[in-house]
Design goal:
Layout (H helix, E strand, L loop, with lengths): L7 H12 L1 H4 L3 E13 L2 E16 L2 E9 L2 E2 L23 H4 L9 E10 L2 E10 L9 E3 L8 E3 L2 E9 L5 E10 L8 E12 L5 E13 L7 E13 L9 H4 L1
Antiparallel strand pairs: 1-2, 1-13, 2-3, 3-4, 5-6, 6-9, 7-8, 9-10, 10-11, 11-12, 12-13
Length: about 250
């Protein structure tokens, strides 16, 4: 719900950008490197492994290639992120799917203007949002009780913040955290933060793309046993191929 908010024009501009994301975003490819940490058992930020990959968004679908763990290549049977053969918490750059979940008939999202602030020397507008229990029908958390157990799925209540450039209304940061998770579910808390930046794509054009993210999953209500993924995205470029059509004249 947007009407009547202070700086509603900024949120309306952001909404329009999100809903046109798929049609405006070109095919792109870049590099992702994720450091996966574990908290708990008396240890703070114990490094589990480092996962690297080439990530792309092609014709509306995310794809993963050149997957490696600790610089050792991992064989893939599929190029979709959700099918990557990884143990533990896995996460990939958000190209708009999480953002789209905030708008549309499938989710009821409550927005409020929070503050004017400064991030990295840039004036920003901060909006809070909330998706209450029973209003989330699309964003799912998935986990297993233990290795080999059936995969469980829940649709938790969540809240977060959206940070927009105060002048251009471009997205600067997207934040989300769960507020209520069903008691039977193995994960008790989940959160993510994605930082965005207007980046050149190597052909004179630019687009607002993810540059860093932090994803946290916790196995207890006090957030003492958690897994944290810290990711950087680099070298975004338009993805395409050059073709040459040969005629009889070219072949002579």
């Amino acid at each position: 719900m947007v009407g009547g908010l202070r700086h509603a024009e900024a949120l309306e501009s952001f909404c329009g950008w999100v809903l046109s994301f798929d049609t405006r975003l070109p095919n792109i490819i870049g590099n992702q490197e994720t450091h996966r940490y574990r908290l708990g058992h008396g240890k703070d930020h114990e490094l589990i492994d480092t996962v690297s990959a080439r990530v792309a968004y092609i014709e509306g679908r995310p794809r993963v290639s050149d997957l490696a763990i600790n610089h050792v290549s991992v064989q893939q049977e599929d190029d979709l992120p959700e099918n990557a053969p990884l143990h533990g918490a896995a996460s990939y750059g958000d190209y708009g799917s999480d953002l789209r979940l905030l708008f549309g008939s499938h989710t009821i999202t409550h927005f409020s203007f929070a503050s004017e602030n400064v991030v990295h020397g840039m004036p920003v507008l901060v909006f809070d949002y909330e998706v209450r229990e029973g209003d989330n029908h699309r964003w799912a958390m998935k986990a297993r009780e233990k290795t080999g157990a059936p995969l469980q799925t829940v649709f938790p209540a969540y809240q977060g913040r959206i940070l927009l450039d105060a002048k251009s209304f471009a997205l600067i940061r997207f934040e989300r955290e769960t507020t209520k998770v069903e008691k039977h579910f193995p994960l008790r808390f989940g959160s993510n933060q994605v930082d965005y930046k207007l980046l050149p794509l190597g052909d004179g054009t630019s687009f607002d793309l993810p540059v860093a993210s932090a994803v946290t999953f916790c196995h207890d209500d006090k957030h003492r046993r958690c897994e944290i993924n810290e990711t950087k995205y680099e070298n975004w470029l338009k993805f395409g191929a050059k073709t040459r059509i040969l005629t009889n004249m070219d072949q002579n």
